Sequence to fold (182 residues):
Amino acid sequence: MRTIILLFLLVVFQSKWLLGQSLTVEYLNQYIKMSQPGMKFGEKEKLYVVDGVLYDCIGIESKLIKYNRYDRFLSIEYLFSDSISITVFRPNLLIVLIHKASPLKLKDKKKELRKVIEMLSNTFEPPAFMVNDKQLSIKEAKQSISVLKPRNIDHISIDKHAPLSIYGADAKYGLIRIWTKN
Fold:
């Protein structure tokens, strides 16, 4: 009987712990707010695009729960409907895009790596740079990229908007994250 109770408590604890890592609307709002601290997003109506399907605020929580917010393949991006030249959306609408990226093939890794090299060569607006969740200076990033081989890359994430409160002022112009296989 004691074993069954302990097993039950373990299952309850684990499920609460896993649910605590699930993606939520509150987390998305905080992420966007941290990405653009000067902007006021609270009064903007939001439209969510989850894996290509449109959702409004009603029912979105149940769609987000399957995503782990710490998954390195998770992509969160946003844009304003006003910034789209041809749009069917109402003006002043914040569109939040959520999807899980699939693992990259070697040719795609090479293409992404070329993009990263190009972004790092922009001396006026370089993005923040991380390898295996360790933030590097631009000098360290360039050095790291020069020896990195595409076959050793597990995943590359290039974000145009990154929370400044998490990644610092360097992330003002974006964030490049690379995870290696080792």
Remarks:
- DSSP finds six helices and eight strands in the chain.
- Strands lie at 45-50, 53-55, 74-80, 93-100, 128-131, 134-136, 153-159, 175-180.
